[in-house]
Amino acid sequence: MVAVPTRIEARRSIWLAPCLLGLTILAGTAIGETRLPFETVLQTLANHLWGAGYAVDGIDAGIIWSYRLPRAIVAACCGAGLALTGVVLQALLRNPLADPYLMGLSAGASTGAVLVTVAGVGGGAVSMSLGALSGALLAFGCVVLLAHAVSGGAGGGRAAQSAAAIILAGIAGSQMFNALTAFTIARSANAEQARSIMFWLMGNLSGIRWDDVGPCVAVSLMGVALCLWHRRGLDAFTFGADGAASLGINVRVLRGSLITATAVMVGVLVSKVGAIGFVGLVVPHAMRFLVGTRHDRLVPASALAGAVFLVAADVISRIIVPGQVLPIGVVTALVGAPAFALILVRGART
């Protein structure tokens, strides 16, 4: 008798998730700086998707199809990807404060992207996405080496000290790579470039077009699939690396594949939208409260919630100040910083 409601609930979730995501993207397409009738939005989508043939003003159609829709899709992909990186890092490190922003991945990706676009590293042969990916991998490598040097001689409680050392090393790495980014901009960029890049570094979806949709969708789907494939391994890390190994998990392979996937996701997404903080920190915690800690539920729930959250943040960033678009990172920080403080207070009391 218990299995029937469970199956019904699972079937409802399978249908509810894409419907909620579709409605969120539709809302992100319909709401923006310029007010457009909702009927015009639906007619434009129908024209492009099914060749409906509605008479729609060309400028309105261009705003909806070429600007707002790809922007909403990329925002959803970035929210899902960043939330998943938080899930993975928090599980592998067993630390509730781990996320790509604190671990230095976002800062390293930003440095790599800026070196390619502003300083001309690679002589035009290296793309911005490849530069961001290389920077993310380099940043995480530096963080791991520093953490290993700090905790290598620890005795009792070595696992806990190692996880804490990685977080502290990530904060130090973030500051270092942020400084390298600022130095590169100050040395190589002109005033207009500097203003544009600084706006981008705080999170900017204004330049998103259809060419950016494919890579973002691909890495997000890859992240969801890989995390679901390794869901039992992530569950096993609840007992620590030694506990996971005793349960038959190949700890080295699992860590290597998931951390590499995390770096790839962060590198690609940061190269498209800049460094957006707090998504990977706030969303996994909220979803653990709602669906529990099992990763077969936590992974899809976090991906969906991250997508909805970032699309909503992008909409707010466009309408909160009339006539001006705020960096999306400002909106996520306004939500994430208080949540970060609550996590710190809760951790201190437990």
Topology (elements, then pairings):
Elements: H1 3-30, H2 38-50, H3 58-93, H4 105-117, H5 128-151, H6 158-188, H7 191-201, H8 210-229, H9 231-236, H10 240-246, H11 251-273, H12 279-291, H13 295-319, H14 328-349
Helix pairs in contact: 1-3, 1-13, 2-3, 3-8, 3-11, 3-12, 3-13, 4-5, 4-6, 4-11, 5-6, 5-11, 8-11, 12-13, 13-14
- Mean pLDDT across all amino acids: 82
Which structural class should the secondary elements be placed in? mainly alpha
Number of H- or I-type helical stretches:
14
Order of helices and strands: HHHHHHHHHHHHHH
What low-confidence regions span 5 or more consecutive residues with pLDDT below 50? 1-5
**Spatial extent as radius of gyration:** 21 Å
What is the helix content?
over 70%
Shape: globular
**What does the main sheet amount to?**
none
Strand content: under 5%
Q: Give the N-to-C terminal Cα separation.
A: 38 Å
Q: How many beta-strand segments?
A: 0
Summarize the structure.
This protein is 78% helix and 0% strand. The protein contains 14 helices and no strands.
Question: What characteristics describe this protein?
Answer:
350 residues; globular
